[in-house]
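sorry to bug you again but im stuck and you know this stuff better than me. what follows is a protein written twice so to speak, once as letters and once as structure tokens for the fold. id like you to explain what the token line says about the fold, in plain words if possible. anything you notice is useful, everything is just below.
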Amino acid sequence: MKQLVIFDLDGTLLNSIADLGAAANFALTQCGFPTHPVESYPRFVGSGVTKLLERVLPESARSAEQVEVMRRYFKEFYGEHMTDATVPYPGIPELLEQLTSRGIAVAVASNKYQSAVEHLIAHYFPEIPWVAVEGHKEGIPVKPDPSIVFEILSKRPTPKDAVLYVGDSGIDMETARRACVESAGVTWGFRSLTELREHFADHIADTPSALLRLAL
């Protein structure tokens, strides 16, 4: 049985794509750029807000200065609207309850900025006793750098062979590989099954119940 399961947030625990897309489109509109349909956003997200904003901007406008202006508009809008359309994926609340009731610790490792991660986790999963809720912090590299996993392990020391890292993207699978922990790619998120396999997911899970079986 695993002792610790580390979850990615967006595309793994929460379907947040509509609110992310709305915030990015607001920033684009405020800066006079064309917007994108919400269904295009799964290919933009996953590497943190800076990369998201770079990707949605026209290639000729991707300067550090423009991205910083966009970031201010994005965070202004997202801070007020991050729970408008976001929902946990079906079966996720039950999975978290089942894991923790069995004494398996749970943590979050996200490339989303820390304050937003903390707000979303408190809003959607207030009863879950998380051992760590980690988002992106200034000066710390984003995933697939494994620093965020090591930060969680510093807060909850656990043998690496007793850790399962769960995510929906190649970035997540690479993060797990670099941290030398077992990975499970979920198929209900923002990225494809092909991407998960290309990045050497140790396991593929089509349902939360399949994750429970992997953890037990």
